[in-house]
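Please annotate the following for my students:
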Amino acid sequence: MDLIRLKNIYKQYKNGVTAIYDATISIRKGAFVFVIGGSGSGKSTLIKMLYREEKPTSGQIVVGGVNVAKLRNSKVYKLRRKVGIVFQDYRLLPKLTVYENVAFAMEVIGAPKKMARHQTLKALELVGLKNKVHNYPNQLSGGEQQRVAIARAIVNNPKLLLCDEPTGNLDPERSKEIMEVLELINEKRGTTIIMATHDKEIVNRMRKQVVTLKDGRIISNEEEGTYNEVV
């Protein structure tokens, strides 16, 4: 069953640059997908369109039965509640503890305190940080900060987790830890994960679905793929 369908997507920016050309792809529920490509290939644009940070110029994007391309701005928050997002630069709130950073995502949607506590501790346990609940971001390593960001992204049990270069600021060992956490979330929760990356070693080691972009075009889509050197 497909969770995401992109059909004939074009994205042209106001400066005339076309970032995505005629992209058509389906992603099944529960998949783990790497989106790879060189700088300027359109990876981040593709990810941003899935959570409506960017709108396509033309074409159709369906996420969980919702046509994201046609979604009114006033309704975007409903989509975001069903999608977790992890960025390269963590984006944690420095004056909040690990627990508060993750719980904040529950507070935003008005979840009852008891539920928020349960979900927050569950998410922190899944990423291996239940013993760091009282720490602040500046007391954590880069890898730990990214795990907090992942916990915050999954605390609402989203069907879809979008990761934009989540290991970009980490050394190989920390990167491996993050990928183990993401794989656990994919397998244990059945969360569909789409991850933009340029990390050849991770892609080749994990052998997941690989979508390759070049100059805004999808040039390959392989199950159990490897890093395509054409990029």
